[in-house]
Amino acid sequence: MSASSQKSGCGCFFFLLLLVVGAGVWIFPRLGRIDIETARDGDLIGVFKQLTTPLPDSELVADSARPGGLNAAVPEPPAEIIQMSLPEVSPSEPPPAVAPDDSTLVLPEAWSKKVFRGIYLSRYQATNRASEQMIRDRVRYYKQQGINTILHGVWGNGCTMYKSDVMQQTFGYPSCPNQFQDPWLDWLIDEAHQQGMQVHAYFEKGIKLDKNSPIFEVATTKGWFVPGIDKTYPGVDHYLLNVKNKAVADYFKAISAEFVRRYPTIDAVQWDDYVGYHDELPGEVDRTAVLTQFMRDIRAAVKQANPAVSFDVCHHNPYWGKRYFDADWANWQVDRAFIQVYNDANFAVELDYVEQYQGISISDTQFDRLEALANNPNVESVLLFPANGKPEETARRFGEFLRAAK
């Protein structure tokens, strides 16, 4: 190779390197603006719109009236990650097979004291007729990576991921239009309990739907939505069910009770920040009291059907949830509350709330926080949100962290 060609090649390399680094610097702070549903559905135009929407001038808003004597800054709402819809495996592709890891993990003492070391799995992990062996292998894999709790999606976009008599009676079909084997959750719960683990049923998307929901047209015809469109994520339109509507409330209560009766050994059910009405919806409507009564009624239906099941929530901190989403979950009479802390710039502020409740949920981009969380005795539990859409990889990294921490 000649000297001139070497020089030219070197210049091209550094130009490419600068291009990649520059793109990364531009994209990274905007990743939280991408709605997972848009990315999963392959809507590249929608993703581009979300990335190119200008970021807000400020990440923080001052407020001196915060509860509990916490007078620090409060995260600015919708510009950052404010929802927790899980990355989902595309229904057109089978979920990845997981080979069990034969290595034995001895937990560091600090982590052994955490009540829950959990990981979220999207409802789409059960699609494409995931076999019994695949599901049981996965459970054992997570156990071997130090996970003791699986939070698995069982509901989303207005429909169930199991055969539901309530759905059949209400809409004429029994579940979400996805291929899954009927006993998938029975296998999951059985294997988890054999491994000394818990399974918490995660109700993804809560009261929000998009136009891909199988019940969207019926809900529109019945007048089940509140006015306006939730544009929390740029380029994604969400429609919120009106929980003041008796038919909507009755549907959710019936689904909730049916679920815990059908799966009597489920350890918990969990709802998240998709239960809330964003304050940028049109009109000056305060739905806080209505939403509080709705969630209390759901909890009552669950407890009446199966008193042993824990009724939990994983939401924004109570100030932020009530102020921006009418979600006064501190008065929902939940059994346990976990605080979502995906806005890393406000981590210290959010930690004050975490220490008052039952734990924290962080994403796989925040593993640098794990050591401090482990050594904080006031953080009871740590839940992992696989923002990369690859829960097996997230669990593997967590296992590697635990082994290195010994």
Radius of gyration: 22 Å
Based on secondary structure, the structural category is: alpha/beta
Annotated CATH architecture: Alpha-Beta Barrel
Q: How would a crystallographer describe the biggest sheet? A: 8 strands, parallel, barrel
The average pLDDT score comes to 81
Tally of DSSP β-strands: 13
- Low-pLDDT parts are 1-10, 12-21, 25-95
Q: What is the number of domains?
A: 1
The total of helices stands at 14
Overall 3D form: globular
Using the coordinates above, name the CATH class.
Alpha Beta
Estimated helix fraction: 25-40%
Q: Superfamily at the CATH H level?
A: Glycosidases
Based on the structure, what is the oligomeric state of the protein chains?
A: single chain
CATH fold-level assignment: TIM Barrel
SSE order, one letter for each helix or strand: HHHEEHEHEEHHEEHEHEHEHEHEHEH
Distance N to C terminus = 50 Å
Strand coverage percent: 5-15%
Question: Can you characterise this structure?
Answer:
With 406 residues, the protein is an alpha/beta fold. The strands form 3 sheets. It has an 8-stranded parallel β-barrel, surrounded by 5 helices. The chain has a two-stranded antiparallel sheet with strand order 1-2. The chain has a two-stranded antiparallel ribbon with strand order 7-8. The chain is built from 14 helices and 13 strands. 37% of the residues lie in helices and 13% in strands. It has one domain (61-404): Glycosidases (TIM Barrel, Alpha-Beta Barrel), CATH 3.20.20. Helix 5 packs parallel to helix 7 (184-194) and helix 6 packs antiparallel against helix 9 (246-262). Strand 11 (336-340), helix 12 and strand 12 form a beta-alpha-beta unit.
